[in-house]
Structures are given as structure tokens and as C-alpha cells.
Fold this protein.
Amino acid sequence: MKRTARLATLPPYPFARWAGYVEMARKRGLDVIRLDMGDPDLPPPDEVIEVLARSVLVPHHHGYSSYRGLPALRQAIADYYEKRFGVTLDVDTQVMPLIGSKEGIVHMAMACLDPGDLVLVPDPGYAPYTMGALLAGAEVYTFPLLAEHGFLPDLDAIPAAIADRAVLMWLNYPNNPTGATADLEFFAQAVDFARRHGLLLCHDAPYCDVCYDGYLAPSILQVRGAEEVAVEFNSLSKTFNMPGWRVGMAVGNADAIAALATIKSNVDSGMFHPVQEAAARALATDPAWVARRNAVYQERLEIVIRALETAGVETTRPRASLYVWAQVPQGWGAEQFALKLLERTGVVVAPGTFFGPAGEGYIRISVTAPKEQVQEAMERLCNFVASGAFED
């Protein structure tokens, strides 16, 4: 079979490759504990499942759905943004439901980029920012997220000639993989940067409701005038424990939303009607439910942080996200360390290099496993580091 040139530009998706090592460990009889994926292990709110179950029984809910989404879902998205962020959205021009935000991220690249265009992408960062650009034939310029800057980009360090040439820029806070957060002052700087250089600013915010100790992550659309240059992507996957449901959203700049709608009208036929009704109910979930769920994650995070401190592994305590971003022992590469940890103990973490070259020297540890498994995994990791086994 002929393969296109665009496929040749795409590296293997790192977690797909990693799955092979995990399977080999299982075949060797290891008790594998996966802390590499940000895959929520807890269920959605009961009311969401009840709405889905009722809707599935309605005969006419099994046909095609509009690619623009049910009006009720678009209104629920707008209501969520109004209540959560104080942001007012036009449900007809500024709201687009997505079949998961990953789909929208790649399709936005298809909508906005021509071959030879330039995209600004954070390093480390979520792989689809780059993959979407490559599929569109665009070029990628990466800007580093460094610990000394709180894993925020130094926008002034991006050469003016590069910024002027760029068509699109990606940001992501609370950040995957570092767990870093951004305030409205930084977002205002980013909006100004986008306006000065005439580019579309795309902010990916799927972890905005996974927050701790009273912290509330802002939306970039809270910045005055942001809707003139910015689109925000969001998802029900992390906020409401619905990753397999594949429900996301793009909101903000009306021209960009219209371009995205043109792509989607040609490549999909919308989400399953009952899923849309259930998603609308999820967006109206009592914030107290989210707070209780976040308390479960925070308890697991404390286990990870304490264990890493005991093992002498440097890290920072995240205010949001599902992840701990930790340094590997000096002299070791991220993937070397993670692979040996897997082979010796069955504990699976994500090498920082899965998210870009600037992730070298780090591992990402997820807390999307039951407390007992997190505890056991961290005991194994501590023993592994203390034994010096990683130095063999």
C-alpha cells in the first residue's frame, strides 16, 4: 500500500511505543502499575450516566447529529463559561462541541495552516500540537518551558522574525506535563503577543478544573479582548471523568470557530445524541462534586510527593493537573530511567522526552490509579532508587 509523504513526517506516538514495553513486562509476570497515562479511573457523576441511559431509550436519538452540536449542548457550554469564568459566549458563533479536544486540536491545524506556514509549540508539550501542524504540512518552531521560569514561556525570547511569520501559537495551562499554572497577567501578555504578531492564539485548558488548595485556574478568555485573537480548547475528560466519552469544546474567536466548523462538516457527522445530552448535564454539575473528586487526587498526589522527597528526587508540588513532574537521578536519561524502573519493578511512568526534547531529565507521574496502587508504586520506586538498581 502506498503511504503518503505526510505520514513519513510523523514519528510514532510515544505512548503507543511504550505500550509494547508494558506488555513485555506483563508477559514476564510483573505486577504492572500504570502511572504514565492521564486516564481518570473514577466514574462521572451519577446524574450524567442516568441522563445517558434515559436518552439511549429514545428511538429517534440514534440518527445522525449535527456537526455543530445540539443547541442545548452549546448553551450548556456557554453557561459553564459564564458561571465558571464570567466569560460570555455567543452560542451560535463562538462555541463548537468537539469529539474530544484532541480531534479539535488537529482539525484546527487543518483549518488554519497551509504547507510552509509556521506554528509556535511549547516544549515540553502535548504531542498533537506538533502532529496537527505536520499533518497540515506546516513547520514547527518550539519554545522551551524551563523550570527557572516556572515552566512559562519567555515570549520575548522568541525571535521577532519567527513570531511575525507564525500563523498559530499553542499554550496549555494548567500544563501537561509539568503541572505548572499561569495567571491572568501572563495570559494578558500572551494575548498582546498574539495581537502584535498577527497570529491565532490557541489555549488548551483540559485541566482547568483539576485544582488543589483553593486554586482556581483562569481562562485565557477572561483577558479583555482575548476573543479577538484566541480560541480555548476544553474537555469533559478530566473535569468530569469522561475520557472515553470523547466530548470537548472549542470556544472564542468567531472566525476561527467558523473555520473549524467547515473542516468538521466535511469529516464528521457529530456526536451521538445521548452523549450530547449527558454532556450538557455534566457541565451543570455541582462544583462540590468536582471539589470532592479533586480531594481524592490530592490525597494521591501527597503520597507521590512524600515518596519522592524520601527518595531524594527533586520535584515541585502542582497546584493543578493530574501530574507530578520529577527529575530523574543525575546522569540518567529520562527514558533510560523509566524503562529500567518498568523492567525492574513493574511501575510505569512517562519519560519527559515523550513531550519534547526539553523534557529530558524528567519523568511524569500520574495519579489516575487507586490510592493503594499509587502507594505500592511509590514504595517500589523508592526502593528502586535507594538500591541503586538504576545504576546497573
Remarks:
- The longest strand covers residues 166-172.
